[in-house]
Every structure is written in structure tokens, then in C-alpha cells.
Amino acid sequence: MVIGAYGKAGSRIIREAIKRGHIVIGIAHRKHPGFDQKNIIIKDMMKLDRNDIKNIDVIVDAVGAWTPETEIVHYRGLLHILQLIKNSSIHYLKVGGANTLYIDKEHQHTLQELPLYYPNYMQDLCAAHTEGLRILRTYSNVNWTYVTPTYNFDPTRKAVGYYHVDGEEFKPAKSRNPNDGINDYITYDDYAKGMLDIIEQNKYIHQRITLVSGNNPVPTQRY
Predict the structure, then answer these.
(1) Gap between the Cα atoms of 161 and 18, Å rounded
(2) How many CB atoms lie under 10 A from the CB of residue 52?
(3) Are 191 and 151 in contact (CB under 8 A)?
(4) Backbone angles phi, psi at 196, to 5 degrees
(5) Rounded to 5 degrees, what angle do the CA atoms 189, 162, 56 make?
């Protein structure tokens, strides 16, 4: 099951899963024109119930929300799903926010504290992702994985064809300006491949990881 089936991440994850032979059910809160995806349930994730998830092995939470009114879904929606699947064998994977990555070895500071990376207008969204991760860490009775794309998450280019898995720490540019960053880029297509690899290998349970391909091909461009 992929929640956020019509989103930039969700649609690519569905496409990659189908290509690999998986049976996929998508969840979307409203219909979107221009998509030919099959097995889509139009339903708010907050209204999903145990009947909706029967026979489900994996849930990918790729829901997107970008306004103060909707951003709470990153933790309230997450909490609702966790309550449905606790004490089950379902693997829950959350598409995370790079703002939550630690920038120090003591894990006291996160990337969202650097204003050139995350300016003030993005702090509400940052807070929602931070709260979602905090809640997730409290659920030892859920098989969860928080899969963070690195800072530059590009929907505009095709897959570069490779990625690697990092941990919870991100090394910002010494100048604290993302234009000078390195090892801070992944496309949505490469991220989707990484997500399916994690699912198929059933890896990184109770961990937050980061998927990275390399350097941003256009250092001054944000995505």
C-alpha cells in the first residue's frame, strides 16, 4: 500500500513496485487527472481502518502536505496508521524530511536550524516532520523505517542509476550555504528504487536512514 499515490514520490514508488512484480494498492484523498494507475482507493488516510489494510504486507507513507492547514498529516496521519498496525508484521516506511537530519555527532542539532537550508517560511513543515519522527521512535511494536531523501530531492531529472545508504547525519557545506554542498542529491526515481530495495530486503527496521546519489548537478538549484 502506498499512501499519497498521486504524489511525486508515491507515484514513482508505485511504478517501481509494479515493475518489480508487486501488487500495489494506492491511497489518495482525491482523484487526480492524468494518471492511469490501477487499484487506487480514494480515501483520506485518517479514515483508513483495519479492513483497508487486511492482507497488506507493507505500507509506504508518501503523503505530501505543504500548507500550515495540512502539514499536520505528517504526524497525525502517521500516528493513525501506527495505531492501526501496531503489534502486526506490517513494515511501515515513511518518506521523511531532510530537515530532521543531524548536523553534529552528538545529535543535538538538525539541518532545519540552518536558515539558508531551511528559511523561516519552511519551519512549520519542518516542525511537522520532526514531530512525526519523534512519534515514530516511540513505537517499538511497529516495524518502521524512516527513509529520508538527502537535501536536494529532484523530481525533474531521470535516475542517475545509483544510490547509497547513509545514516542520520548530514554534513552541511562549511559556508552553511547549500550552493556549496556535496553529496546532497538524489532523484525521485533513484529514491523509489532504494525504497523498493529496502522493502524487498526487509532491512533497517527501527532505523532512520538517508538515501543519497551524489552531488547536485546544478548546485544553485533547489527542488
Answers:
(1) 18
(2) 15
(3) no
(4) -70, -35
(5) 50
Query: 0.90 exceeded by the pTM?
Result: yes
- Is the Cβ–Cβ distance between 159 and 199 less than 8 Å? no
Residues 6+ apart with CB under 8 A from 85: 53, 59, 92, 142
pLDDT tens over the chain, length 223 residues: 999 999 999 999 999 999 999 999 999 998 877 667 789 999 999 999 999 999 999 999 999 988 888 999 999 999 999 999 999 999 999 999 999 999 999 999 999 999 999 999 999 999 999 999 999 999 999 999 999 999 999 999 999 999 999 999 999 999 999 999 999 999 999 999 999 999 999 999 999 999 999 999 999 999 9
C-alpha–C-alpha distance, residues 18 and 177, integer Å: 39
Residue 182: CB partners within 8 Å, gap ≥ 6? 171, 173, 215
